[in-house]
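seq as requested:
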Amino acid sequence: MHRWFRWVATAVMRNWSLKLVALVTAVGLWWGVNRQNVVERILDVPVQYQMGNTRMVVLRGPQQVQLTVQGPASVVRALTPDQFLLSIALDRFEPGERIVHLAPDMVQHRVPRIHVSRIRPAQVTLLLDALTTKSVPVQPQFVGTPAPGFRLTQVTTEPTTVTAEGPASLADRVHAALTEPVNIHMRTQSLQTTVQVGLDSPEWRVVDPREVQVTVQIEEVTEPVRLRLPVEVAGLPVGWTFTPRQVEGTFWVPRSKQALFESDPPRVTARWAGEAPRRGQALGLTVEWPESLRGAIARWRLQPDAVRLVPRRR
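C-alpha cells:
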C-alpha cells in the first residue's frame, strides 16, 4: 500500500507545472463557454394594475413596458411576451398623479434560469381617479324607417335607467346609455325586443342591467277627415227632444281606410235613462263603428261632445 501511494504521488508531481497550466486552461475555457452562453433579450410586456380593495381607476398609465432579460441562449430564444407580466398594486395610492418606481420584483413569470436585468422606463406617472356610480337614462337607437304610410308613434324601455360606473371626475360627461340599434326598416307593425346597452364614454361602463327591453309602437299614418253627422238619441221621454241635431266630427283615419270610412261612416248616438228630464240636461255622445272600421280608428273628436234636452214645442 505504501508503495502504491508513492507511485501516485510521483505520477502527480511529474511535470506538475505543465499539468497546472492545463488545469487553468480547462477551467478558463469552461468559464468562457458558459459565459458566452448567457444572452440578453428585450421584450415588450403588458402591465397589469392590481386594484385590491380600493375603488380606483387608472385614467392615464402605460399598457406595456420594456424588459431586458438574461439567461441561457436556448431559453431566451424561446421566450414570448405573454410569459411576463408587470404588476402594479394601487391599494396604497390616493387619486391624482402618482409616480411609481418599477423594480424587477414587480415582474411575474415562471421561466426558470431567467433574470430581469432592466425595466424601461424605470418609473411611470399614473393618473388615478376614484370610481363612482350614477343612474343613467336609456336612449334607444334605430336603424331605418317604417314602411311608406307608417310612422313610429311611441318608444318605451324597461327599465328606463341603468347603473353606470366610471371615474368621478368624468361623471358629468355621461348623459345617456345608448341601446344597440333596433331595426325598424320597412316595418308596418309594432315590435318588442331585448338589446344590449352601452355608453359613448370609453372610461365608463354599464354595470346593471346590461340589457333592456325596447317596445316600439308603429302605426299607419292618419289624416284628419271632417264630417257633419246626425245624432241619434234612444229612450227620449215623451214631449222632449234634443239639440243640436247634428255634430261635427274630426276623425284621424288611416290612409288605407279612408275610402271605406267615407262610404260607411260611424253613427253618433246618445241614450237618456233618467226619471225626470230637465231643460238643458246634457247627454254624452258615443261613436258607434261599423264592423269594417272597428278598431281601425283610435282618435277622434266631436264638437260639441254632448246634446241637451229641450221640451218639444206644442
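The chain has a mean pLDDT of 88.
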